[in-house]
Structures are given as structure tokens and as C-alpha cells.
Amino acid sequence: MTFLTQVLNGLQLGSIYALVALGYTMVYGIILLLNFAHGDIIMVGAYISWIVMAQLGMSPVLAIILSVVGCTVLGVLIDKVAYAPLRNAPRLSVLITAIGVSYFLENGAQLVFGADAKVVPTYFNLPNPQVGGATFNGVAILTVVVTAVSTIILTLLVQKTKFGKAMRAVSEDMGAARLMGINVNNTISFTFAVGSALAGIGAVLYSMAYTQATPTMGIMLGTKAFVAAVLGGIGSIPGAVIGGLLVGFAEVFVSAMGFSVWRDAVVFLLLIIVLIVKPTGILGRTMNEKV
Amino acid sequence: MDQELNGGQERPYVTAKASKHGGGRKTLSTKKRYIINALLFVAMLAIGQGLIDGDFISRYQTTVIEQIGIYIIMAVSLNVATGYLGQLPLGHAGFMSVGGYSCAIFIIRMMPVFDLNMRSFVTGEPMAVVLFVVGVLFGGLMAGLSGLIIGIPALRLKGDYLAIITLGFAEIIRVVMLNIDGVVGFELTGGAKGLTGIPSYTNFLNTFIVVGIVLFLIHTMMKSRHGRAILAIRDNEIAAEATGVNTTYYKTLAFVVSAFFAGVGGALYAGCIGVMAPAKFGFMKSIEILVMVVLGGMGSMLGSVLSATVLTILPEALRAFADYRMVVYAVVLILVMIFRPQGLLGTYDFSMGDFLEKLINGELFRGKSKQKSEEVEANA
């Protein structure tokens, strides 16, 4: 294993975390909710891929489309059913509801699919290009490219379109945005849709790399992606990407040094250290509390 | 039967009593209230132990009762941080495992020193009892210490950050328990296969007594100046700070107390189950305890006790539906949050003293509205 291969591995894992972290950051930015169910949406996406390819024997392209669409619909549905009734409730209640949804998805999946891991078939046989004697993993390169493109599209969406403007307005001040004639509920749903679509893409990329779907896969993935979002500064799109890459690199290099059993502990330690030094994260803005 | 006892020790945290102003109403002094509750506690204990000694309760049922006690401690201790302080730590199982491992390892290592064997704890040799007390306190202290270490940085952060940092911390604890043997170079926690050879030092008698002590201590703490400061922080942190409450100190205090008692619960758990494995103290365990607190009512001790009891018995009684249990938990949690966000009991607490006062004054079956208007008059 050369150093460059490890860098690519770090980029790959970091990209997946970044995609998931973007979903966290967007939802948090707009309704200040830590969407615990976000990681489990990825789990559902992986199972959709498994059903379409392994059970129904349909094409990988269809599997990818259905995974992304399925995740998007699920994300909006969760918002409408569980979070929307609590729009004016205390933050703690919404947070506990989010935990409930996450718990429901995990145990529901366990009930339907069983606790054992399902093998997601290979989507495409990608070539592994060789550059100067080193072989690079094709899936890893695809993951990095897809993440980069998704991030650019997302940034354009948020910065240049009318929907993006509405999202930024709602995130700044929900009441004022409503007075300006912005449909707050639609904007929030749209945010959930975008975030969950990214989770769907993440699910496909994750299944390509790890080829497994288990009911509890979303917990660790989701938690680490949230760690990434917090590290980078929650609410910030470049922050989520930086945080995701940081977490990915930390994990890969800790493993490469032979401490793979301590991987998870190092990630959380990193989070604790960053939060102590800079509680708003690397690119986070300081929010003043209003009395 | 536990909950009746605990109910006896609780009073709502309301100080304005009509009795202070009202003319001929008979009242019970605090001393008398405590004596009545202590007597009830001893009576319950005697009845319970009598039933076990007389073989009316099987060995299996006794274990379930012990677990109820342990989960009551877990729920009530989490309630200190969630219900009273208004924070949402998601790493309660981490503190539980610290307490459990510390106590179990301590007792296992100390057994040869004091020439004790596995039977000593069952027969109740005096030295074994001393070791049990020291071990449980040690477990609590270690958990409290880890609560302090995590609390100081975590409490600088608000709600969600605190949740995620405590979750992360519990995960770190789990990884440490799993891999510490390789670092220290000898067998300490037993890694993934778990810590075995723990003497069964937990029994009905000591569980019951510890539950009583924990409830009493938390109850009295919440009634004291310190408890009111913690409640003030929950209601409005900025206002509390402006009135001179040292918010950092009290937040840390509540957090450490919560962790300490979680450690005590974990210590009992280790002795009850007999095997400690890191996998038992994952995120799911923390959520299970949180569900107990939330369902019962955040800020209600009676609520925590009741829901810990019900949610421990239910899965045992409904073994056939074990697969559906978790899904039902989740749905119930969501529904309770949507339709009754304050939990089933809200902040209501039962007080044996108040109950008896009403009984001797013949107010028990009078309409609520009348009583309310009286209180309003008295407070005016």
C-alpha cells in the first residue's frame, strides 16, 4: 500500500462522509434540528439497491435512480409525518422525535430484512487505472468525482437559485422569511428533499465501496458524518466537505498506522478537541443568543 | 411494589402550601413525613424479602425485580440531566459501563486479598458486604469522574452538540473497554468476549436499599437550594445566570450526579448479570434509558420509576413479541412527543405526605376546582 493509495482511500471515505454531512448541515441550518434519522435514510437507500439488483435482478442504473428517489421521498415523508407537527415545540422534543424515527427505521429494517448483512451486488465493473506503477481504485475515483460535482451543484443551488435564496432566508429568520412571502413549509420540505437525495447518492457510493447493507449501518455512518458537519462548522457547505475529508483521512491514517481498533475513538476525540478549542467548528459562525 | 415506595418519598417541587396560611388544616411536619416514608420503605423491604425467602417469588422473578431496580436507578439518574437540567445526554450507557466495569474489576481483584470466594457474596459474609459497598461507591465515583471529564467541555455546548459529544464519549468508552487489554498488557476488561467471573453480589435486599438511597438522595438534592438552581437553569438559563446562579457549576454538578448514579446502577448491573461485555453498552442502551425517562415525564421521579418498571417487565412478559418490541418503542416515542411532549406524567409527582394530609383533612374526594380556588386565596 503506497502513500498515494492511502490518500485516495482517505478521499473516498471522506467524500462519503462529506455527502452525508451536507445533508445534516442543510437540515440543521434551516430548522436547527439534528436529524438523527439521516444516517438511517442511507441504510434504506442501500437496501433499495439490494432489492432492485439482488432480488428483482434489474439494472444497476435503475437501482441508483430508485435509491436516490426513494431516499428523497423518505426524507420528505419523515419531515411531514414526524417533524412538521412539532415545528413550534421545544427543541428537545423534536430531537427525541428524531431519535424515535431513527430507532424506528433501524428496527423496522431489522424486522423486515433480518439482522444479518445483505450483500449489495457490484453496480459496474470500473477499471482500476494505473499511474506510474501505482494502481488506483476506480470506485474511489468515481466517489471523489461524484462528491465534487454534487457539492458544486449544491453550492450553485443554494447561492444562485430562487429556492436557494428562500432556504438561506428561512435559515436566517423563519418569521421574517414568512412575512416576506416565502412558503416556509415548502422550503423546509425542499431542504429535506435535497439533503436526502445527497444521502441517497451517499448510499449508492457507500454500497459500491463496502457492498453490504445492515440495519444498523446508518448509526456509525450517520454519527461520524454528523461529527464531520460539526467539525467543519454546522450550517456551512464548505465546512461539511472539509469536516468530512478530515474525518475520512483521520480514520484511514489511524488504520494505516496499525491502530484500526481505535479508529472510532480517534474520530470522537478529534470532535471533542475541536469543540473545546472552537465550539462553532472550523468554518462556523458565532451565533449570538437572543433574549 | 417499588414504585409505591418511591412514590412515598416524593413531593412535588412546589413550596407554596395552602396549609401555611389556611386556618384549621392539619399538617404533617417534615420529620413525620420522613418517618412515615422510612417505615413504609422498611415494610416493603420486609414483605419483599419475606416473599423471596418463602419461595413465593422464583429465582427468575427475583432477577427481573433486581433489574427493575437497576433500571429505576438508570432512569432516575438520567432524569437529573434530562428532566431537571434540561439537557439531552446520549451517553448514559457509557457511564453505566464505567461503573459496572470499575466495580466488577475492583471486587474481583479484591476478593483474594480479603480471602473471599464467589459464595461469600451469596452467604453475606461481613467482609463481602463491606466490599460490596466500597465497590459500588467506587463504580459510582469512577463514572462520576468520567462525567466530570466529559461534562466540562460538553456543557459549554448547547443541546444538540451536547447530545452528540456525549454519544461520542460513550462510544470512546466502549472502544476503550474493548481494546484496553492490549494497551495495559494484561487482562483487565476481557475485551470483546467480556469480563467473566463476577461474583453475584447483587441481590434483592441490597438492590432495594440502594434504590431507596438513590431516590432519597436525588429527591433531597432537588428539594434543596442546589436543586432549585438546577431547575432554574432548565427553565431559563439566561434568567438564572442573571439572578446569580453559577450556571456552569450547577450544570456540571447535575451532570456529575447523573453520571455517578448511573455508575451505581451499572455496578449493580454487573453483579446481577454476571458478565460484562462492551457490546451491551452501545447507543441502543442509552436510548432505551432515555425512552424510559421521556415516556414517564421529564422531570417526574414517579414517572421515571413507573416507566422503568413497566418497560422492564413488558419485554419479559411479552417474549413472544420480542421482534416487534423495538419498533413499538419507536412508534410510542414519536407519538408521545407529538401528542404529549411533556411525557405521560409531565412533571407530576406523588407525595405520600401530601396524600396523608389530604386524607386526614378529608380533602381527598373533594372537587379539584374548590381546592384550586382555596390555594389561590391562600397564596394571595
User: What's the CATH topology name of chain B?
Assistant: ABC transporter involved in vitamin B12 uptake, BtuC
SS summary, helix count of chain A: 11
The SSE order of chain B reads HHHHHHHHHHHHHHHHH
Number of domains of chain B: 1
Largest sheet geometry of chain B: none
Question: Span between N and C termini of chain B?
Answer: 40 Å
Structure report:
The complex is a heterodimer of chains A (291) and B (380). With 291 residues, chain A is mainly α. Chain A has one domain (12-222). Chain A contains 11 helices and 4 strands. Chain A has helices at 3-31, 38-55, 60-83, 91-113, 138-160, 162-172, 174-179, 184-210, 217-232, 237-256, 263-277; strands at 118-119, 130-131, 134-135, 212-213. The model of chain A has no long low-confidence stretch (mean pLDDT 88). With 380 residues, chain B is mainly α. Chain B has a single domain (24-289), classed as ABC transporter involved in vitamin B12 uptake, BtuC (Orthogonal Bundle). Chain B contains 17 helices and no strands. Chain B has helices at 2-8, 18-21, 30-53, 59-84, 92-113, 118-123, 126-154, 159-184, 204-223, 225-235, 237-242, 247-273, 283-296, 301-317, 322-339, 352-360, 368-379. In chain B, helix 5 (92-113) crosses helix 12 (247-273) and helix 10 packs across helix 12 (247-273). The longest helix of chain B is centred in the middle third of the chain and has 29 residues, at 126-154. The two termini of chain B are 40 Å apart. Mean pLDDT of chain B is 83; it is low at 1-22 and 370-380. At the A-B interface, helix 4, helix 9 and helix 11 of A face helix 8, helix 13 and helix 15 of B. Chain B: It comes from Olsenella porci. Chain B: Keywords: Cell membrane, Membrane, Transmembrane, Transmembrane helix. Chain B: This is Branched-chain amino acid ABC transporter permease. Chain B: InterPro entries: ABC_transp_permease, LivM-like. Chain B: GO terms for molecular function: branched-chain amino acid transmembrane transporter activity.
